[in-house]
Predict the 3D structure of the following.
Amino acid sequence: MRIAFVEVQNFRKLKSIRIDFSETTTLFVGANNSGKTSAMLALGHFLVDQSRFTTNDFTLSNWTQIEKIAAAWEAQSTTANAPQPTLSSLEPFLPALDLWLEVATGEVHYVRQLLPTLDWTGGLLGVRLRLEPKDIEDLHKQYLAALKSAKETKAAAAAKCGAGKQYGLKLWPHDLRSFLDRHLGATFTIRVHLLDPSKLVQPTNGIANPQRLPNDSEPVDGNPLKDLVKIDEIPAERGLGETATRGSDSDGEEGPSARFQHKLSGQLRKYYSKHLDPSKSPDPADLDALEAIESSQKLFDARLETGFSAALKELASLNYPGVTDPRLTIATELRPADGLNHSAAVQYELLSDNGKPPTTTLRLPEEYNGLGYQNLILIVFKLMSFRDAWMRVGKAGKAASGDTKRPTLIQPLHLVLVEEPEAHLHPQVQQVFVRQAYAVLRNHEDLGDKPTLHTQLIVSTHSSHVAHESKFSSLRYFRRLPSRANGDVPTSAVINLSEVFGPNDQTEKFVVRYLRAVHCDLFFADAAILVEGPAERMLVPHFIRKHFPELNHCYVTLMEVGGSHAHRLRPLIEKIGLTALIITDLDSVEPTGHHKATPPRRGCNIKSANTTLKEWLPKKDSLDELVDLKDTEKVLTSDVPLFSIRVAYQIPIPVKLTDTGAAQEALATTFEDSLAFENLELFKTIDGGDLAEQFKGAVNANQDSAALGKALFDALERASKGKAQLALDLLSLEQDLVELRVPKYIREGLDWLQKQLGCKPVVSATSSSPAVAVGVN
């Protein structure tokens, strides 16, 4: 048994999404504010603790429709025989989570309560957990009574003041939301409804199509998931780096801390109490420890009696205790877990250079260790604790078997939610964690690879390092969607990346290997720039910083993929709907034979060898067509909101090679010769490596654009491995690089991308400097 997927409706910005769960680890990725945190919160609210719900968890734009329903209640309250309120009117706007289980026929005994029909023979079973009014009529009455009371209060105050005094202020409740701000927990609850597997509909572009419940749908009694799924969670806020608060007594004794349970020592104490405490259901092996504790307690009590004797005698001088009063005595109760209930319970022992303990023991409390290691140890220990609690290790097993109110059977499914594990962790440690976390959860003799009990781990992350180390098929990409109409809020869609490529697709192998060779910033960016080679990778970020200040404040990832491979990313980029600019080269070749590279020339049937231009955008290979193509024909749009792709390649450049001569048209075929044509004066004096020297000689020796183009082409052919060196030479120039002119085709592409993203500088309230760091990676 496993969770196949969930569908979330009307929860914050998750208007209607489906999240497919992989069999082991599922990773939530996406740009900032794309809905990852909302998804984790939805799972926690619905499956762990419904008391967390507030009115802010309803999709914001739904309140407009909900308030219209409430206004109708108010208007009808003065009408005789007004219709009774119905739950069906609120249903389309209520937060809900549909959980679909994949169940084998041999597991039917677990899910008898969930069977839609007696004919069910295995497969998917679904339940809807919906936040809904406990009693719609009671909610209706309470709300109208509160409204009436507010109106009567204002009327009474106006009458007391006289002279037609009117109060413009709004008394609570001024609408249904303000009423529920105070009474949501008292008037709403989570109810469970059965779903019909035959009515399942696949999502459309990442938007779920959940089924409607029948009008006569009745909720299931109790919580049928309680005995099926054990759910544990580790939130993003873990309280690390905070020392325990102190008590107020002058001796400086440590008092209780609200944050203490977040620390490792608090987790150790809870683990000890649940699984190891010898005072709970003692085993024969515990008797020695219990005897030692009892002996210590007697010795301590004797010392306390001696120490307090003078104080008790002084108390007796005040005629207490009297004849009938109870006698005051002092005794201790030593509990094993108390030794872990202080900030120094967990310490780190410092080792010598050879890795062995030093002669003198050196130790520090846990808060003195680095936050990264604290976070790693805390998370891993929590995972172990979750696993042992699920498997009833130690005392927990005896407690469960002896408690008639709890099920004696272990739930067949364990769902663990971990939010942003990367906090404070070094990139390499992040990768180690995501590789080992699932193994920790399965490290038990009854788990491992055995299929009887199933574990599913859900991780949300902002870290490209965590995504880099995960299976591509386990990634779920959260995509931001704009508001659909006035009054709506931006929402989210979820893309299952395991469905991007077909089975045994060679393109998928390339993409997976490529993304493993670089950081997966693609999944966290607002847009991507795909460039041809190392020279562009070094200089395009400079162009953005110097000439496109608004774009410089956007979250854009720059990836070097090469002209012959950029098209392989097409299925991924189009599936996730990521706006992209492809900066590539014409790569002109002769039309016959082996398509030998040649300088670009008009009217000679020259072709482009660039696979991206031929197969992706604009799907043309004629140089004459490409150089005269309109800007609009270089853009690919779709019905996916906020998504488009543009290609940028070399276009004709007007150059003036002599002081007296007319401007001539120059055709470039690569990034490097485009730079030379755009910056002729600079290249006349440039100093640098072999390619820079050859370019300088060509620019100074030729006064015809075609001849100069041929000379630059020949130089590039001879020094094909010197392109990166040319970029380094330009970065080493003494003059400000703002004087380096951006090739026109790149300038037009970056200008398009800046407009697509609508980037604006983000400025803090107290400073004129940008509040967001440069987003180009």
